[in-house]
Amino acid sequence: MSVLAIINTASGDKSAVVFFNEHVAQHLPPDTVVTTERNVVSLIDCSTGPLVVVLASGDGTLQEILNQLSTTTPPQLSFVLIPCGTANALYSSLFPLLAGDNNPAYRLQSLQAFLDHQTPSHLPLSSVTISSPTTVTQTSIASVVVSTSLHAAILRDSEELRDQHPGLERCVPETAEEVLPDSQQ
């Protein structure tokens, strides 16, 4: 089994490289790290056996990889997710975040499961076709996450708060009052 680490330097608050170096790198062979500036899909395609991709990024990078691989025959592929994006909806679906639980140990749960040789979770995928009378039909592969609409709303609000609160804490409400409109409390 080969291990390839991919870091998206532009995801979230742009701290993926620092987080990876401080908390992840010591667990992986040093020659397996690349950034998204390289054609990582070609590296995945070149794998001849089972491959584990340690992905320090957000949901968008995973989506791009899945879409590029959907046109090829990828190797047996597993992902270890290191949440470094803005909302990290897929990671949050697999490892629910509690208020105040945004510490490195939370962000390393997927890596710890891999290191402990736990059976990987199956990643549900969906094929989404986008078409209209004025555009060319486009098919996209997407990972299925819980509460897609809620994710979109959180992402919108999170991006508006990025300058004031650059860390992940802007994505986690501390109380129900921050989540529910006044009419629903």
User: With helices defined by DSSP (H or I, 4 residues minimum), what is the helix count?
Assistant: 7
Low-confidence stretches: 175-185
Distance between the ends:
50 Å
Q: What spatial form do the alpha-carbon principal axes imply? A: globular
Helix fraction by DSSP (H/I, runs of at least 4): 25-40%
- Rounded to an integer in angstroms, the radius of gyration calculated over CA atoms is 17 Å
- Write the element-wise H/E pattern from the N-terminal end onward: EHEHEHEHHHEEH
What order do the strands of the largest sheet run in, or round the barrel if closed? Answer: 2-1-3-4
Give the total of domains.
Answer: 1
Averaged pLDDT, please? Answer: 77
What is the structural class? alpha/beta
Largest sheet features: 4 strands, parallel
Strand elements, count:
6
Provide the β-strand percentage band: 15-25%
